[in-house]
Write a structure and sequence with these properties.
single chain; mainly alpha; Non-ribosomal Peptide Synthetase Peptidyl Carrier Protein, Chain A; two-stranded antiparallel sheet; two-stranded antiparallel ribbon; 4 strands
């Protein structure tokens, strides 16, 4: 049983899948940083100094009554919040990852495209079923007239 497991685990597709998952997780971390550290600050600046990670709605006040200046203050007070700013960041991250994966798959499919079959250079003689060059007017095998 251990031998079978080792054979399964060392198959090419299992190892490839593991590598893909690891690289995908690292790519996700890069995209998350890109969104939260590079893309969202300028968007927040354009929208009037909005910090998307601090967008939240208080459902229930905590030990200290609100209003809370930041999400960290609300969480420190024990308030129950809906953190829709993080949700916006996550949606943007997902769109970027999905687009990157789309572009990768598109390029892979472009490389995989089969070349169209070359035009035939022969035709079949209707009398003897031999392969005859397309330009031939007489079959070299049975000497029949070809039209």
């Amino acid at each position: 049983m251990l031998k079978e497991f080792k054979e399964f685990a060392m198959r090419g597709n299992v190892v490839d899948m593991a590598v893909g998952i690891i690289i995908g997780a690292a790519f996700g971390t890069i995209v998350k940083s890109l969104v939260s550290d590079v893309i969202m600050p300028p968007i927040g600046l354009l929208l009037g100094n909005v910090d998307f990670s601090n967008l939240f709605v208080v459902l229930k006040a905590g030990a200290t009554a609100g209003p809370y200046a930041s999400l960290a203050d609300a969480q420190a007070a024990g308030a129950v919040t809906i953190n829709y700013g993080f949700f916006i960041n996550t949606i943007i991250s997902f769109i970027i990852v999905a687009f990157a994966v789309f572009m990768i798959i598109k390029q892979m499919n472009r490389m995989k495209k089969e070349t169209p079959a070359a035009a035939p250079s022969t035709k079949e003689c209707p009398f003897c079923a031999s392969a005859v060059p397309l330009k031939a007017t007489r079959c070299p095998f049975c000497t029949s007239d070809l039209k």
